[in-house]
Amino acid sequence: VDNATTCVPEVTVNAPVRTIKEGGNLTFECQVTGSPVPTITWRTEQLQSNWTLQRGIWGSTLELVLHLWNVSSGDNLHNLTCEAENRAGPGEAMVQLNIEFAVKILFLREAEQQHHWCFPFAIDGNPAPTISWQYNTTPLNETRYTYTQLIPDQDDGSVQHGCLFLNKPTHLNNGNYTLIVENKLGRDQATAIGMFMDNPFDPFDPEGIIPALCFSAAPTNSTDVTEKLESRLFGVRGGYGADSYREMMLLCDCVQHIKRQDIMLKWELGEGAFGKVYLAECANLCPDTDKMLVAIKTLKDANESTRQDFQREAELLTVLQHEHIVRFYGVCTDGEPLAMVFEYMRHGDLNRFLRAHGPDARILDEVKMPPMGQLTLPQMLQIAAQIASGMVYLASLHFVHRDLATRNCLVGEGLVVKIGDFGMSRDIYSTDYYRVKSPGVISGNQPHLCSTPYKPQSIHTFP
């Protein structure tokens, strides 16, 4: 064949109507010219709709008409291709189907734990639907902690995959989550159950938080209280520091109690030897702040003895007020478990903080926080000075800490360090350094502090 009379096929697709509702009919005309006469084909292998073909010739133009009837929503966004080929080469033209149909939920699964908790779902609809959620029949307002995210999938037509993400939900978020989707042609909904955490509080408490109950408000002799506390806590013997302690007790003679409606749990921070600790939002703690973050430390297995210890420690913590002692706000009682409310120290315990900012931070698997650079010598001296300041304060009251360690110091914003472990309040931010197994000396406590008076003369006897 003479090359002068040979040309690659030219393919054109004419579509009078390209958008149709599901169940309608569409017609596509594929017109081809070329020399020698090309073959012409519609690629119909992936079509889910019913179809027929009709051939025709108009002079030198070949025509292959594709009729679609009772079109299926499964063909929405399908790229429909007409191909032609002769000895000179191939040619093709393509048109995308636009089929409108009512939105439908393909699946909604129960919550599963990924990086955040996720309710996986898939929906399909054209036009693109709106997405909203209900939580236990009430509208769910999305925030930075609860949000919907769609996952693009170009190979799946108009199907949209996504997740409703919840960042560290607690038992307060347990319940039914209903997905509602809607477009101009229809509406659909489905419900899944989210169970994120067992209720750590009294199951008969509908609010899911500990009710407040003040200890007895009857007048108490400050000298008696001083003697009891000094003789039973921190290894302090009667007669030491009574005057200074009595002065402190006069300033604060009752433990503050936090009201039920003022506390909203956010998520679990960890579990220590005596119970779990939660991050919470608390209202009405400070006159100049509506709400603030706090650490709620719960006490498990509260028998009569531990309840008494709990009350004594609460009274003591109320007395201790210093810029480098973790601030104690109050208690919630009368229900299980008992709980203490402390200020929240954002960076957790000093042990992990030092590891995260030490020379080996990048190779330690246990470090979860982003590296912020190695601490400088002035910064480490600043940390030591703050701890020493807190210990000097305790020494001025003749209190002995008995277990000063980096795991028992907490780090806040601006490299502020505070002593944060007193007796039962061990390990607010760390997990299971010690667990209560049997009576005896707690690991790390120097035996000579337990029974005899002493004079500060070594690093182990520093009060």
UniProtKB/TrEMBL annotation:
Membrane topology: Single-pass type I membrane protein
BP GO annotations: cell differentiation; cell surface receptor protein tyrosine kinase signaling pathway; nerve growth factor signaling pathway; nervous system development; positive regulation of neuron projection development; positive regulation of phosphatidylinositol 3-kinase/protein kinase B signal transduction
Localization (cell): Cell membrane
Assigned EC number: 2.7.10.1
Domain of life: Eukaryota
Predominant subcellular localization, coarse grouping: membrane
Binding site for ATP: L269, G270, E271, G272, A273, F274, G275, K276, V277, K297, R407
Domain Protein kinase, first and last residues per copy: 263-463
Chemical reaction(s) catalysed: L-tyrosyl-[protein] + ATP = O-phospho-L-tyrosyl-[protein] + ADP + H(+)
Binding annotation for Mg(2+): N408, D421
Keywords: ATP-binding, Cell membrane, Developmental protein, Differentiation, Disulfide bond, Glycoprotein, Immunoglobulin domain, Kinase, Leucine-rich repeat, Magnesium, Membrane, Metal-binding, Neurogenesis, Nucleotide-binding, Phosphoprotein, Receptor, Repeat, Signal, Transferase, Transmembrane, Transmembrane helix, Tyrosine-protein kinase
GO CC terms in record: axon; plasma membrane; receptor complex
Active site residues according to the UniProt entry: D403 (proton acceptor)
Enzyme class: transferase
Molecular functions per Gene Ontology: ATP binding; metal ion binding; neurotrophin binding; neurotrophin receptor activity; transmembrane receptor protein tyrosine kinase activity
Xref: InterPro entries: Ig-like_dom, Ig-like_dom_sf, Ig-like_fold, Ig_I-set, Ig_sub, Ig_sub2, Kinase-like_dom_sf, NTRK
Pfam families recorded: I-set, Ig_3, PK_Tyr_Ser-Thr
All residue ranges annotated as the Ig-like domain in the record: 9-98
Family named by the database record: Belongs to the protein kinase superfamily. Tyr protein kinase family. Insulin receptor subfamily.
Protein name: Tyrosine-protein kinase receptor
